[in-house]
Amino acid sequence: MALIVDLSEYQKDSAINWAKLKAEVDFVIIRVQYGSLKQDTEYKNHVANAKKYGVPFMSYAFGHFVSQNDAVQEATDFFNRADKASKGYI
Questions:
Q1: Mean of the pLDDT values across residues 64-68?
Q2: Is 71 helix (H, G, I), strand (E, B) or coil?
Q3: Which residue of 6, 19, 52, 76 is 20 to 30 Å from 13, comparing CA positions?
Q4: Residues facing residue 61 across a β-bridge
């Protein structure tokens, strides 16, 4: 069974021991945004350290859309903001 950790701005990057995390998890999922207007403030920091320490990661968006057009815009923003080294998108 894979051990997966969900990271967002609620888990401050400066508080994470990335070397220990790498030894304990299979990969992490990192939040990119909450709706289109709220980008996760720790996303770039989490991605940089995941890359630095060799922790595989996927990117996710927390949907907050209110219409089909809004959902399309959120998805577009998500794919534009997500790091291309991401192993997948959620």
A1: 93
A2: helix
A3: 76
A4: 33
